[in-house]
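Lab notebook, bench 4. The sequencing result for the construct came back, and we need a structural model before the next group meeting so we can plan mutations. Quick request posted to the team channel:

Model the 3D structure of this chain.
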Amino acid sequence: MQEKFSLWQVLVLAVVQGVTEFLPVSSDGHLAIVEPLIWTSSGRPPPSMDLTIILHLGTLGSILVFYRDRILRLLGEDRRVIWLLMIGTAPAVALVLTAKLLLDEVFEPILKSTFLAGLMLPVTGAALIWSEGRPAGNRDYRELSWLDSLIIGIAQAAAILPGLSRSGSTIAAGLALKMSRTAAATFSFLLAIPALAGAGAYEGLKMLRHPAPLSASPVNLAIGAVVSFAIGVVAINLLQRVLLSGRLHWFGWYCIALGAIVAVMNWPR
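Done. Here's the predicted structure in C-alpha cell form:
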C-alpha cells in the first residue's frame, strides 16, 4: 500500500505554500526543497500533484478575500483591466500548455528539481534587489498598456521554473515599468487569479482522466487548504508592508543565500 503524507507533513507544506506564494521567494522552489526533507520514510515521497493543487487553491482563496473589493470593480468601472489580465496571462498559458502537451515527461522532473531551484533562487534575488534600487514610480495598474501587461505576463511565464518567484518576477517587472509599489503588487496578485485557477483546473482534469491514489487523506487535504488560505492572507499583508517600507531587498538577499546553499548541497556528482 502506498504511503501518504501525514497531517504534520501536510501542515508544513501548507505553511510553506501560504508564506512563499505571496512573499517573493518562489513557492515552487521552496516546495521542491522542503518536500524531500520532510519525507522521513524510505524511498521517494508519493506523487503530490493533488496536494499541490489543493494548497494552491487555498492561496487562491486568500487573493479572492484580500482583494475582493478590487475584484468586484472588474465587473464595473475597471472592466478594461480584465483585458489586461487576459493579455498578461497568455504567455504563461502558451508556455505551460506547450510544455505539458509536448514535453510532459521531461518537464515534470524539472519542476521538482531541487538543484534547479537552487540555481534560480539567486536570479529571483538579483531581480528584487535591482528593482528595489530603481526610483519609485507612480503609475496605477489601470493605466497599463497592452504591451506593459504582456511584459509582466512574460515575467510570470518565466516563473514556471522552480526558484523563480511568480510574485517577485511580476512585481519587479511592474516596478521597472514605473508602477507604484502598491499598484505593482495589486496587479501581480490579480494576475495570479487566472494563473492559479487555470493551473488547478488543468491538473484536476488530468487527474480525473488518469486517476491515482491521493497523496494524503481527504481530511488532511482539507486542513492543508484551510491553513494555506489563512497563512496566505497574513503573507499578503506582510508583503504590502514590506513594499511600502522599501525593504524588498531583504527577500532578495535571502533568495541569493538560500539558493547558493541549496545549489552547492545538490550539485550533481
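The two ends are 33 Å apart (CA to CA).
Will bring this to the meeting.
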